[in-house]
Structure prediction request, 93 residues.
Amino acid sequence: MSVTVNVAEAKAQLSKLLDRAVAGEEVVIARAGKPMARLVPVAGQGRRPLGLLAHWAPYLDALTAPLPPDVQAAVEGEDSDEYGITKGVLPKP
Prediction:
């Protein structure tokens, strides 16, 4: 279905006309009864593709996974002495 509106009406009801165009209705804007423009929806309004960091996608699970218990203990300082030096790092002679 097609609807033709004059410029003044289009200015007053642009939001409603845009909604109708997005819904699939053809909206023609006319000046003095002569068609001047047509409102149509923009194609391709879906999910945006991964951009700059797309190559990180396979690693996201590993980056957000919990740390192993020994690493978590070291991060929390459980294996450190009173000076913050990790114990047991150097092998015994």
